[in-house]
Amino acid sequence: MAVGAVGVYSCTDEEDPIVKPAAPVLSNYFAIQNSTVAQGTIPSNPSGVSLGEVVINSTAIAGGSSHITITSDNNIQKLYVSIKGSNQYYTITPNQTKSNVYEFIILLSQYLNQNFEIQISALLGDGSTTSLYSNPIIYHTAGTGGTGGLQVSLSFNNEKDVDLYVIQPDGTIIFYGNKGGHVYDSVSQQY
């Protein structure tokens, strides 16, 4: 018994199409409470005034957060926050804690697994837009912490950067702004 096989191979003059990688989706990196997501490139003016002094933690861990403080002599009405290469940006009305100081917090994704470059610009009171502030954020792999059911991730970069929150099984996020229920200490047997 004989078995035969015939194969056909062809070549074309056409090259394989170049597939561009998909633009990063912001929610895969971080979220900002009380913000809206807009489509398009982050608004900025290359010849605009500087955003000001930005204090941000340049190290990120999955599930952590970063407290961002901007000190600016400009009257900031809105902040725009994105990552390099994204076709989306967050729009927020910043919390002005004192004269010329604006603050907000980014909540990093539980699934964060790579470095990224954060971009921030602002809409000023006179209607103009600032130049783009950009800063690389280095992803840090948190070590595994035993076999318990609780994972706590902490990161400290400045006095306001205390990153501790817990996500309950029902999805409720317990953090400094939502203290939630009580914690039971099994050693002291008290709440």
Structure, described:
The protein is mainly beta and 191 residues long. The protein has a domain at 26-142 and 155-161: Immunoglobulin-like (Sandwich), CATH 2.60.40. It contains no helices and 13 strands. The protein has strands at 30-32, 36-39, 53-55, 59-60, 65-71, 76-83, 88-92, 95-98, 101-108, 116-124, 133-139, 166-167, 173-174. The strands form 3 sheets. Strands 2-7-6-10-11-4 form a 6-stranded mixed beta sheet, with no helix packed on it. Strands 1, 3, 5, 8 and 9 form a 5-stranded antiparallel beta sheet that branches. The protein has a two-stranded antiparallel ribbon with strand order 12-13. A hairpin with a 4-residue loop joins β6 (76-83) and β7 (88-92). It is globular and about 60 Å long. Mean pLDDT is 79; it is low at 154-159.
What topology emerges from the helices and strands here?
Blueprint: E1 30-32, E2 36-39, E3 53-55, E4 59-60, E5 65-71, E6 76-83, E7 88-92, E8 95-98, E9 101-108, E10 116-124, E11 133-139, E12 166-167, E13 173-174
Parallel strand pairs: 4-11
Antiparallel strand pairs: 1-9, 2-7, 3-5, 5-9, 6-7, 6-10, 8-9, 10-11, 12-13
In short:
With 191 residues, the protein is mostly beta strands. It is 0% helix and 34% strand.
Low-confidence stretches: 154-159
Largest sheet: 6 strands, mixed
The CATH topology label of the domain at 26-142 and 155-161 is Immunoglobulin-like
CATH class of the domain at 26-142 and 155-161: Mainly Beta
- The 3D shape can be described as globular
Give the SSE string: EEEEEEEEEEEEE
Taking all Cα atoms into account, the compactness measure Rg is 23 Å
**Fraction of residues in β-strands:** 25-35%
What's the CATH architecture name of the domain at 26-142 and 155-161?
Sandwich
For the largest beta sheet, what order do the strands appear in spatially?
2-7-6-10-11-4
Mean pLDDT: 79
